[in-house]
Design goal:
Adenine-n6-DNA-methyltransferase TaqI, Chain A, domain 2; nine-stranded mixed sheet; 3 domains; six-stranded mixed sheet; Rossmann fold; alpha/beta; 24 helices
Length: 816
């Protein structure tokens, strides 16, 4: 074999690997991967025997390029053969059929995959299934598919006795992230700044789709061909005003040199065979978007499982006209089209024809509007209703037209930005009477006092239907913000006795892991829809209730539920670990504090002014604790000087510790501190005498309350902190009804965990307190007393006594 032929063969093998990776297969050797390369199959007797006599060139064993296997059983799922030139696809088919038939003769049922061409050139692919003794191509809309089936597709093809017409699938998120990262790196190397990368990638995607990949790949032609194809797509869609919004700079020689590789990557991801089943450009663009700094064009895009939920909440059907006045890449319009198709049970082509005038979108940012139009074009909507226009001053705004309004408006971050409530008002103007609007809003809009007038006036002409709090991870890693879905009925004043559906989605089926949201079990999405339709009441999750005091926050209405065992143990363990770390960190100061208390220099006293409005009945916080606000004398801490007394503030770390200061009015423990501002809800148990600032609530156990209940209550407060924010403060009345888990086994577990941690803390105080210089050290010449007793001992005297005690005696025992 010549050197050139071998190089071409290696490039063909690399192409197969890229096709496998693009669909989520792991090309490592089993058991950690799914692929056996060339003669590696001979390590497995069943495979070795199957291919023992099917050499392409005479007697001997066959050596296919790759065998895709089930990694545990090593059952062959597919066998691959490659040729270096695209025109040799028929030769590749003949060879791979030979290997595939040998496997069938041995009792296996793999697919046969022939690939001709190289990773950096044009290629052909055939995926074949043996049926009724002959090999036939797997097709998509009558043409051979151009991708390797993913794991789910592979199982479906092999498990069916019928001919298969396969639709392309969006590759796994991790594959999209990896490819998006590579594309972003290529664009960065080409000198494109963040702001210009979305337009470039959108242009290349659309051009590849428009031409079915028929773009010249030479550096002199590739960029002009991309622009020409992209412009033609917009002209054909009747959107010439956007034809220049998605384009590449034809003079950029660095990009011309790298565009070929970008096209290769996108072709491996099926960009040339997209269908209406997938909001593909949105999915791929959003992954790419993460690598361009997150907010390069000022927008965050709504995850597609949320757009689906919102169309379901509004019961979108084929007769509805759907309007989005801040449409972004078109996620809501695509979700509406999907639901229309599902509800009508019609083919895609027919539903596109039916709804072509029923999907209306506005976006005044040229690149985003163009990306949205491209998204619609890719779904066959050649007469898209997306407009590059400002919905607030468009002369052709569709007043009183839509049945459904869906929107995620850009959240304002400057005083000059359009506020969210203006978007909502404008969206409602686009709807007919009794039309439904569902929009995502920042949670602050539900409760902030400066929005109260807007909330009141809105309900004088419209009705609030539902408020659904969303996971605070929803827009991560792009942004961290608390949001909610708010749903309205236009033109019907909100009646006093009308109930509103309130819900909190804690698990939307995804969780943040290593900078990306990955699937997890236990999604509540289907349950949200079910409970919404029946106006259900599930403690901790949802409740239908009448509005009170113009408060739209779900936390004001959803009943609290006792924590599960796992939740309980997790919260309590976190509390105890935090307390132990606090003791170890401040062991020297805490040792000094305890000695000062023992000597009468610091005198803790009960906190007697009760202001709580506790509720009665059941095992609740109000039953077992008196709730107070913290000390007003600590409202300003600027006057404090270093001293012996521990001060607790609204900090959510270090058990709430603010530091050690010269402060006389310390409170006798034990009690709970929970910030009502700052780190709202981050409760902590205080077991040392301390002062507490007035931005905390203080919970004192009533007579007969077991010590372990302090940790139970603190854990409960942490678990329920989702209800509160800067617009909806934590108050004694709002926490009084929270139920507490007081099961004896759990209390025994709390005691056991506490004793272990306390032993560590006491050992730290003994060791570090006896050997370390107490901090803070007294300032020279300072004579101010640390305590308020009549013993006349000054702080300077106390430090002297303390030093003599340390020299002449052992550290205090654990009983101290």
């Amino acid at each position: 074999m010549s050197a050139n032929a071998r190089v071409a063969e290696v490039r063909s093998e690399r192409l197969i690997e890229e096709l496998l990776i693009a669909q989520g297969w792991d090309i490592k050797h089993p058991p950690s991967g799914d692929v056996l390369a060339q003669q590696e199959y001979k390590d497995f007797p069943s495979l070795r025997e199957a291919l023992a006599n099917c050499s392409k060139s005479g007697p001997g064993a066959g050596i296919p390029e790759y065998v895709l296997v089930e990694r545990r059983s090593i059952e062959p799922l597919a066998v691959f053969e490659a040729k270096a030139r695209a025109k040799d696809i028929d030769l590749a088919v003949a060879d791979v059929e030979r290997y595939g038939s040998a496997f069938f003769d041995a009792g296996f049922r793999p697919l046969a995959v022939a690939v001709a061409g190289t990773a950096d050139d044009r290629f052909e692919i055939r995926v074949l299934k043996r049926r009724n003794g002959t090999w036939e191509s797997i097709t998509y809309e009558g043409e051979p598919i151009t991708w390797v089936p993913n794991r789910e597709q592979m199982a479906r093809i092999r498990g069916s006795a019928r001919a298969i017409d396969l639709r392309p699938a969006v590759p796994p998120a991790e594959v999209l992230r990896a490819r998006a990262s590579e594309i972003n790196g290529l664009l960065r190397e080409s000198g494109l700044k963040d702001d210009f990368r979305p337009a470039a990638i959108g242009a290349i995607m659309l051009a590849l789709w428009k031409t079915k990949g028929q773009i010249r790949r030479e550096a002199a032609y590739i960029l002009p061909d991309i622009n020409k194809a992209c412009q033609q797509a917009f002209w054909d869609a009747g959107k010439p005003d956007l034809a220049q919004s998605l384009r590449v700079d034809e003079a950029n020689e660095k990009l011309a040199a790298r565009a070929r590789r970008i096209c290769e990557i996108l072709e491996r991801l099926n960009i040339t065979t997209l269908t209406a089943e997938h909001d593909y450009i949105g999915a791929l663009y959003e992954e790419f978007f993460r690598y361009t700094g997150g907010n390069t064009i000022g927008q965050y895009f709504t995850p597609r499982h949320i757009t689906k939920l919102m169309t379901d909440l509004c019961s979108v059907d084929r007769k509805d006209k759907v309007i989005d006045i801040a449409c972004g890449t078109g996620g809501y319009l695509i979700a509406a089209m999907h639901r229309m198709q599902q509800q009508a049970k019609l083919p895609h082509e027919q539903i596109v024809s039916i709804v072509k005038d029923q999907l209306i979108g506005f976006d005044d940012e040229p690149v985003t509007a163009a990306l949205c139009v491209a998204n619609m074009i890719l779904r066959g909507d050649g007469s898209t209703g997306v407009r590059r226009a400002d919905a607030f001053d468009d002369t052709d705004f569709p007043f009183d037209t839509g049945n459904v309004g869906l929107m995620n408006p850009p959240f304002p971050h400057k005083k000059t930005d359009v506020p969210t409530e203006r978007f909502i008002n404008r969206l409602l103007q686009a709807l007919v009477r009794r039309g439904l609007a569902a929009t995502i809003v920042p949670s602050s809009l539900l409760v902030k006092n400066d929005k109260a007038r807007w909330r009141k006036e809105l309900l004088e002409q419209n009705s609030l239907v539902a408020v659904i709090s969303l996971s605070n991870e929803l827009f991560q890693p792009y942004a961290s913000t608390n949001t909610a879905i708010v749903m309205f009925e236009r033109g019907i004043p909100h009646a006093a006795g009308r109930s509103v559906f309130f819900c909190r989605i804690e698990n939307d089926g995804l969780r943040l892991k290593k900078g990306a949201r990955v699937p997890i079990p236990g999604s509540q999405m289907d349950t949200v829809l079910m409970e919404f339709r029946r106006h259900g009441n599930v403690p901790g999750f949802c409740k239908a209730a009448m509005l009170e005091d113009n408060d739209w926050a779900p936390g004001a209405y959803i009943e609290a539920r006792p924590m599960s065992d796992d939740e309980f143990r997790e919260e309590v363990a976190s509390l105890i670990r935090g307390k132990a770390a606090f003791v170890v960190r401040h062991a020297a100061s805490l040792d000094l504090l305890e000695r000062a208390v023992k000597q009468g220099v610091v005198k803790p006293r009960p906190y007697s002014k009760v202001k709580a409005q506790a509720r009665r009945g059941g095992k609740t916080i109000g039953d077992l604790f008196d709730v107070h606000y913290g000390q007003k004398t600590l409202h300003s801490k600027e006057h404090l000087e270093p001293g012996l007394s521990l001060i607790i503030s609204s900090s959510g770390v270090d058990n709430g510790c603010y530091g050690f200061y010269d402060f006389a009015d310390v409170i006798a423990p034990p009690f709970i501190t929970v910030p009502s501002t700052g780190s709202i809800g981050e409760a902590a148990v205080q077991e040392f005498p301390c002062g507490a600032t007035d931005d905390c609530l203080l919970l004192f156990p009533k007579p007969g309350t077991p010590f372990e209940a302090l940790y139970v209550a603190a854990a409960t407060l942490r678990h329920e902190r989702w209800r509160f924010n800067y617009g909806r403060k934590m108050t004694p009345a709002r926490i009084a009804s929270f139920p507490l888990r007081l099961d004896k086994p759990l209390l025994d577990w709390v005691r056991d965990q506490w004793e272990k941690a306390d032993m560590v803390g006491r050992l730290a105080i003994k060791t570090l307190g006896s050997d370390a210089e107490p901090e803070p050290a007294p300032e020279a010449g300072q004579e101010k007393g640390a305590g308020t007793g009549d013993e006349g001992m000054t702080r300077k005297d106390f430090y002297g006594v303390l030093r003599r005690i340390k020299k002449s005696s052992e550290p205090p025992s654990e009983s101290d």
